């Protein structure tokens, strides 16, 4: 099969390379999936560029894969060949630790991740534990389902953790894949959304989706905010967001990687019970709920499709800020 693998070429166009590999064999409890499409996530870029050092040399990136089950290992009863499934970032957890037992499996110290610990969806075939695969609804096109598997799930978890009050004012910093999906969910739930982002195309997309305002990345919003989510991997935005939220407001850091946060002033940024919190991966329950909401609320990704052979160009465009909405690889 053909697959893209990381090279350690951080920040260059050769950060990944196209290779040929043998067909993977599904282990006990695993599915073998023929990939149809795979979303291109900023986390893939962080892995390829070394911001998140790879857990396996020459790992295949990609954790927003949708495809068809073609084979299964022993002890699989949940799926059958021909079923369409989604392969997401969270690949496995121990199921025994105190975090798993209390429903916070995203914090499991033994968790493994697709496209980081194990080969992912920038390939014609991928394996996934059946317990961590998602059944994709028939009515949802594959190119729409793929971005939900990470960008959508992380955005949804960030929105929940923002504790936005009903009808509240939500600030969104950065407006890429995850943010434009999250905005749609928030708007459908009657939030007033204000977007701060550097790209003019992203600002136009935000306004077209119904945002009340869209300004520069470090510009103050036109009104005080109840909550804010920072999707951009830019720590310098944290003080701006904390100043923008009102008393008792929450600022959520949605990224797996963030540049250094500048020194905060307690009185200006944190006093009056303002909260600063992060998001770590997701639980399977988050994904199940997001798939249900996406269908009910008609959430639609703004998709730019790249041929499988152009995965390196997709990452380069993403790094340059030249992707509006989400990028998706057409694999098979």
UniProtKB/TrEMBL annotation:
Cofactor dependence: Zn(2+)
Alphabetized Pfam families for the sequence: ADH_N
GO cellular component terms, A-Z: cytoplasm
Domain Enoyl reductase (ER) stretches: 11-329
Gene3D superfamilies: Medium-chain alcohol dehydrogenases, catalytic domain (3.90.180.10), NAD(P)-binding Rossmann-like Domain (3.40.50.720)
EC number annotated for this UniProt entry: 1.1.1.1
Keywords carried by this UniProt record: Metal-binding, NAD, Oxidoreductase, Zinc
Record carries keyword Endoplasmic reticulum: no
MF GO annotations: alcohol dehydrogenase (NAD+) activity; zinc ion binding
Superkingdom of the source species: Bacteria
Annotated catalysed reactions: a primary alcohol + NAD(+) = an aldehyde + NADH + H(+); a secondary alcohol + NAD(+) = a ketone + NADH + H(+)
Top-level enzyme category: oxidoreductase
Metal-binding recorded as keyword: yes
Family annotation (SUPFAM superfamilies): GroES-like, NAD(P)-binding Rossmann-fold domains
NCBIfam families, per the entry: adh_fam_2
Family listed: Belongs to the zinc-containing alcohol dehydrogenase family.
PANTHER family documented for this protein: ALCOHOL DEHYDROGENASE 1-RELATED, VACUOLAR PROTEIN SORTING-ASSOCIATED PROTEIN 11
Name this protein carries in UniProt: Probable alcohol dehydrogenase AdhA
The species this protein was found in: Knoellia aerolata DSM 18566
Lineage: Bacteria, Bacillati, Actinomycetota, Actinomycetes, Micrococcales
